[in-house]
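INFO  loader      accepted 1 record
INFO  loader      residues=175
INFO  predictor   begin
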Amino acid sequence: MVYSLAYRRPPHVPRRSSTVSGESEPSIGGSTLDDSRDVSISYGIPEALSFDRIIDGGTCPPCTTRDFMNYLIYIEHAAENLQFFLWHKDYLRRFDLLSDHERKLAPEWTVEQAEAQALASKDSPAPMKSISADAMALFKGTDFAVPKATVVELGKGASNPFGTPPMTPRSGDHD
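INFO  predictor   done
INFO  writer      dumping tokens
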């Protein structure tokens, strides 16, 4: 936009304390400003642009959910919270659409149940995997073969596993 050289900024209009007729003026949010009350009204974002209305699709461009997401991605560089919120909202919607049979596959989590599982896992060791003989024969000689437990006895003739290994012979060392 090009302004002429004679352009002048409009003059400052002071805020009036009341109207001529004595009525109060409506504010952006729809409430009225009355000087007899405490003037602690928030002059921030109007109710028409609330987070809930934007997320529910009750606003027009440039304040749609997509526009809000683009603002968070490209300007604020902090869209993770909104992305998680939208994912959670979609998850709840999809979970509500499940049949009762499918919903029973995901029982409600309780603290008592979690504590009982933690206590049970502490008391009993992890179960050993049992591998069939056919599977062991199939994997024999491959990287997936089940290693046999080897016990190294530190006695006569056994070297210390924490000791320093012998030196590598150098090219000048000949017997």
